[in-house]
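Weekly structure sync - notes
Attendees: PM, LS, DV (DV joined late)
Agenda: review two folding runs queued last week.

Item 1: First target. Sequence and structure tokens pasted below for the record.
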Amino acid sequence: MDPTVALRPMLASEFSRFCDRFIEDWAQDLSKVDDLEISIARQEATRRTKDDFAEGVDGEGRRLFVISADDKAVGTLWFSFEGTRAFIQDITIEPDKRGRGYGRRALILMEAELEGLGVSRVQLSVDAQNPRAKALYERVGYAVTGFRLTKRLGAG
């Protein structure tokens, strides 16, 4: 049976916790993908997140949601949009809630929200080392349109 899932706008009181989690997750990704020391990756993730959210939780061209099931928070979703295009910046389901269909249902609800905004194309990036996320996106109709390749040179 499909879970009952809803998206609700993130409250200002929830924003700080979201930022703390997002910065740490992004720093871990930057450390792996860009081969940065974790302290440098945290500084970069913090700087870029502060830039992205200079206006706080509400901002032009972006939406932040709490994903809830039975009125309990199970994750968060952040997308940005401009014109007819949108980009999923982040979707996170709490680790102990994963695999229950919350992410899939949240993506479907997000698509309805985006259609209401006049968006006709949604994109996202997924870590090559996260096959579970890639499989989720493919199940709801996303297709691979490119790859990001990295090669270390010299002493790197």
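Item 2: Second target, run right after the first with the same settings.
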Amino acid sequence: MNSTTKSKPVHIAQQHRDTMEKATESSREAFETIGAATNEAANVMKTSCSTALQGMQDYNSKVVEFTQANAKSYVEFVQRLAGVKSPSEFIEGSNEHVHHQLTTMTEQAKQLTALAQQMFLSTTEPLKTSFAKATLAPR
């Protein structure tokens, strides 16, 4: 056998080794990319959930605040009714209370709606941004 015959198996083995190293490197890079994307997705979800929880707490606090204000208004109304002297005074007091409560409840509903919208937007914005970033990322 001459030296060219012996070098062919060595050359083929080297090519095989090079191919395996490239495949291993590609796999390692893919796993790193997947790991980074997974960590980023977990962080985005954590942030969104924390934001949603804070938003729900703010919303619930506002509902409690409104409930207390409405209960106080009702107690004041009942106390005022206790002092009426005529049916017309009763009707007038009742109408005032109904008008006041409708105005108050309309404003409360606006505030709760705005709070819910703010919570929704602040919770979904990180998800939307992350999704847009992921779909635009090179593959």
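Discussion on item 2: The chain is about 95% helix and 0% strand.
Action: LS to circulate a short write-up before next sync.
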